[in-house]
């Protein structure tokens, strides 16, 4: 089939939403063409999720080696571990490369036609690329996103960078001093990496609560904030950052908080204030696809359809949680709607969120504050990891499980911070989505010793009884 042939489905963009839609549709027997201007895998694979987590793991290994003696592992006398930044980046690049090759091979085996080039929607809803026009019975827009920037913080890719640069750093050494602008998910993760690798790290956040000001329950986010501060991160909340000033040896960063006004010199500034949809030049207007004032493609969340019949949009280019796994789910909804299968829409209030810092943070559903604001009569219980046997064995006792439930009713929110929260939280995710009662989960058996016991013990306390708590 040539690129100019007709397809069942044409996909504009090869990131998580795009390739998930392509693979899912192809497995349903549809003919699919996917247009990608760079490499299949998108931001998540090449500049986001995967490389960032590889660097976080490098920091974890370095931190663990530094505490080896506490676990009965004797290091050579005088041995001091040191980060090998080039090696960490080679491994990061190797993981990304392997996943990219695997994804490319899978698309080929599923007979997805991958077209290289920058695609644009046409007036009739097709996709034009490189002189060809790809026509399908339906089109899915997966335009992705790019990092947001701030006036006065011009990105040069060397001294002032975004997460796209930080996850593709081929320099020979780490900066000695860094300022991270933004304390959200990305900023907190990079602050965790740099702090653990010995970089003097300053985290500047404009909102109250400098670490994860939006998202998880405050009790959970505060555990991470205290951990970062204890490990050496200088966290400044309600920080207004002024125009950056280049110096002979770095960058001068002026900032003010309600209690502090100062300038710090750093070697590098990481601007991590979120991402914006990359929809400026996709031909949306001529195709009759509405874009809102923030640049997001307007969709019907029940179907992922845009304002133009037969054209869907998923992923970072729509105003839903900017998570790869949400893009996967949205792509499935779009394909199933195209197939006439009546898909269940994504419940955006209950998706799983993970922050891969040390310690990890994960949640699903409402915070305690959100539940109370929504008018729920809530019952709230939490369980600290400090007394958990497995956490003590690992030497990872920072953390807690917090569950928010309707009084005498279902679980509304699950929040966790601690070792492997990213893996453990799915029990809470299921409970929130299945509207389980705490007693439903509390009567289930959790293996001993395990970190997951903290979840079971938190659920038991809703009965007015407890084991170790």
TrEMBL record:
<dbReference type="InterPro" id="IPR006258">
    <property type="entry name" value="Lipoamide_DH"/>
</dbReference>
<keyword id="KW-0520">NAD</keyword>
<keyword id="KW-0274">FAD</keyword>
<dbReference type="GO" id="GO:0004148">
    <property type="term" value="F:dihydrolipoyl dehydrogenase (NADH) activity"/>
</dbReference>
<dbReference type="Pfam" id="PF02852">
    <property type="entry name" value="Pyr_redox_dim"/>
</dbReference>
<keyword id="KW-0676">Redox-active center</keyword>
<dbReference type="InterPro" id="IPR050151">
    <property type="entry name" value="Class-I_Pyr_Nuc-Dis_Oxidored"/>
</dbReference>
<feature type="disulfide bond" description="Redox-active">
    <location>
        <begin position="44"/>
        <end position="49"/>
    </location>
</feature>
<keyword id="KW-0560">Oxidoreductase</keyword>
<dbReference type="InterPro" id="IPR012999">
    <property type="entry name" value="Pyr_OxRdtase_I_AS"/>
</dbReference>
<dbReference type="GO" id="GO:0005737">
    <property type="term" value="C:cytoplasm"/>
</dbReference>
<dbReference type="GO" id="GO:0006103">
    <property type="term" value="P:2-oxoglutarate metabolic process"/>
</dbReference>
<dbReference type="InterPro" id="IPR016156">
    <property type="entry name" value="FAD/NAD-linked_Rdtase_dimer_sf"/>
</dbReference>
<dbReference type="Pfam" id="PF07992">
    <property type="entry name" value="Pyr_redox_2"/>
</dbReference>
<feature type="binding site">
    <location>
        <position position="53"/>
    </location>
    <ligand>
        <name>FAD</name>
    </ligand>
</feature>
<feature type="binding site">
    <location>
        <position position="274"/>
    </location>
    <ligand>
        <name>NAD(+)</name>
    </ligand>
</feature>
<keyword id="KW-0547">Nucleotide-binding</keyword>
<keyword id="KW-0285">Flavoprotein</keyword>
<feature type="binding site">
    <location>
        <position position="119"/>
    </location>
    <ligand>
        <name>FAD</name>
    </ligand>
</feature>
<dbReference type="InterPro" id="IPR023753">
    <property type="entry name" value="FAD/NAD-binding_dom"/>
</dbReference>
<protein>
    <recommendedName>
        <fullName>Dihydrolipoyl dehydrogenase</fullName>
        <ecNumber>1.8.1.4</ecNumber>
    </recommendedName>
</protein>
<comment type="similarity">
    <text>Belongs to the class-I pyridine nucleotide-disulfide oxidoreductase family.</text>
</comment>
<keyword id="KW-0963">Cytoplasm</keyword>
<dbReference type="InterPro" id="IPR001100">
    <property type="entry name" value="Pyr_nuc-diS_OxRdtase"/>
</dbReference>
<feature type="active site" description="Proton acceptor">
    <location>
        <position position="448"/>
    </location>
</feature>
<keyword id="KW-1015">Disulfide bond</keyword>
<dbReference type="GO" id="GO:0050660">
    <property type="term" value="F:flavin adenine dinucleotide binding"/>
</dbReference>
<feature type="binding site">
    <location>
        <position position="316"/>
    </location>
    <ligand>
        <name>FAD</name>
    </ligand>
</feature>
<feature type="domain" description="Pyridine nucleotide-disulphide oxidoreductase dimerisation">
    <location>
        <begin position="351"/>
        <end position="457"/>
    </location>
</feature>
<feature type="binding site">
    <location>
        <position position="205"/>
    </location>
    <ligand>
        <name>NAD(+)</name>
    </ligand>
</feature>
<dbReference type="InterPro" id="IPR004099">
    <property type="entry name" value="Pyr_nucl-diS_OxRdtase_dimer"/>
</dbReference>
<dbReference type="InterPro" id="IPR036188">
    <property type="entry name" value="FAD/NAD-bd_sf"/>
</dbReference>
<feature type="binding site">
    <location>
        <begin position="182"/>
        <end position="189"/>
    </location>
    <ligand>
        <name>NAD(+)</name>
    </ligand>
</feature>
<feature type="domain" description="FAD/NAD(P)-binding">
    <location>
        <begin position="7"/>
        <end position="331"/>
    </location>
</feature>
